[in-house]
Amino acid sequence: MYIVTRERELARARALSGALAIADLAGWQIDRSVPILPMPFRNYLHIATAELLLVPSIEPSRGDLDTVERGTRIARCDALVVKASSEGNHTLYCAVGEWQRHGTLWHHARRLWLSSRNEAWLVPDPDEPDESDAVFRLTGSRLRPMVPARLPAASAGRNSAVGLARGDAYIAAVWSQR
Known about the structure:
The protein is of the alpha+beta class. The chain has one domain (about 5-175).
């Protein structure tokens, strides 16, 4: 059990607004019509068109993924866990969980990357090694892993820091508006 503090509520608001900003960039509509999940998962946002649970989270790193994974099994859809930075740069850290019949395949340490034309992707954080180098394009449909070569050619490779900086600036602007 957690004691509700101002810092905890601010972290919760940042995670939620960051998750909603990603949904907006991707063109996702949150389905509020039918609650598909039981009580422990009711704060998850269901995006039916993307077969996705969007999960704003403030729990310790990877600490809540077991619970989210149970939610993916019940809903039979993927998950995108969104956590806001608590110090330093304004950024989001994401984990993408691909629901599969025999378990959920996780891609950890993903950050928002924006091209010069505001094409949104989730890419591996260069400061956090992960077993997968998959990138995910944020479109109105389901998240699917792609190889990094699929990033827009003008912005890929050595200029990836520029796209990450654009993503961080976008999130900083979202947070300053709230």
